[in-house]
Design brief:
5 helices, binds flavin mononucleotide, Pnp Oxidase, Chain A, 7-stranded antiparallel beta sheet, alpha+beta
Length: about 170
Amino acid sequence: MQRPVRFEQAIARKYPEGVALAIVRDERGVDNPITLGWTMITSQRPPLLAMAVALTHHSRELLENAKEFVLCFPNHEMAAECLFYGTHSGRDLNKFGERPLRRMPASKVNGILLTDAVANFECTLYSQMVTGDHMLFVGQVEAAHMNEDPSLQRLYTLKTGFVMGKASEMEGSR
Ligand SMILES: Cc1cc2nc3c(=O)[nH]c(=O)nc-3n(C[C@H](O)[C@H](O)[C@H](O)COP(=O)(O)O)c2cc1C
């Protein structure tokens, strides 16, 4: 049986949700990471990845200027950093300066990869459109990288409120 509820109630059932970080370099050369839950694959040929970024976020302005970014899947031990990057704005502080993670130069875009991420995707801006209160940015993958350690797991959010964990921990928590 189904019963009608508010959107917020029903959409809460989508969790767990994979966590991603988009990293954009500003004109001063500072790399700003933003934590994202709303990302998806939109094409295989060419490979395209999309993400919804709130119109008010600093990253929205950075993305429109840079027109390129790195999207990566943080590993399950990066929860504290992802929470920090997802609750502070690059308008106010240098996030990597405050909460560093290991980084290495990207090969196709002007930016950096996260050395210990599960995977990194270097993207150039393919298209963008306003969708309500977010901007949908679609990136074409110019280079893809994966971690050599296959045991490394992705980070997930278990529910709204930014509770983070790895997939194997979630079974007992639900
Ligand atoms: C787990 C998690 C998922 C998030 N998902 C999104 C998202 O999909 N889109 C978005 O615009 N903001 C999302 N946020 C919020 C931004 O990461 C946050 O507002 C950030 O501080 C914006 O940084 P900026 O101002 O430097 O761009 C998320 C935050 C967390 C903790």
